[in-house]
Amino acid sequence: GARKLGTYPPVNGTRFMIADYPPGNIPRMHRTETIDYIIVLDGEIEMELDDGEVVTIRQGDVMIQRGTYHAWKNRGDDVCRLAFVLIDAKPLGIGNPVPRGGIAGENVKK
User: Fold this and answer.
1) Closest Cα to residue 102, out of 4, 20, 13, 1?
2) Which residue from 77, 18, 74, 82 is spatially nearest to 46, judged by alpha carbons?
3) Cα 56 from Cα 76, distance rounded (Å)
4) What is the pLDDT tens value at each position of the chain, 110 positions in all?
5) Across the strands, what pairs with 44?
6) I need a surface site. Which of 4, 30, 44, 67 has the fewest CB within 10 A?
7) Total-model pTM
């Protein structure tokens, strides 16, 4: 059966994952206390920020972020595949991040 994984890497550790975002996915605004490296393996996707700004990244692009509220939205016709490396980081003490063991987009407050 499917296994649910939390967003966070282990304490003082890293987490690597590959995720597919289908066309028309439902974006989930969230923020984590990690340093994130995102690599677009295939397709393109929009990263919407809490202020409404939208950044589009495409195959081959790399993004590095730290503690930003964001949501992923695939407005294209094809699946977008992203690789993520999340590195545990010292909490910023701002906003309401995804709790350790929580799932992105659940109970998010700004």
Assistant:
1) 4
2) 74
3) 11
4) 455 555 688 889 999 999 999 999 999 998 888 999 999 999 999 999 989 999 999 999 999 999 889 999 999 999 999 999 999 998 887 777 777 666 665 554 44
5) 58
6) 4
7) 0.83
DSSP assigned state of 99: P
Contacts of 91 (CB under 8 A, 6+ apart): 33, 97
Cα-to-chain-centroid distance, residue 33: 11
What order do you get walking across the sheet with 34-42 strand by strand? 14-21, 80-88, 34-42, 62-66
Strands, E, within the chain: which ranges? Answer: 14-21, 34-42, 44-49, 54-58, 62-66, 70-73, 80-88
Distance of CA 4 to the CA centre of its chain: 16
Structure token digits, residue 94: 């701002």
pLDDT at 109: 47
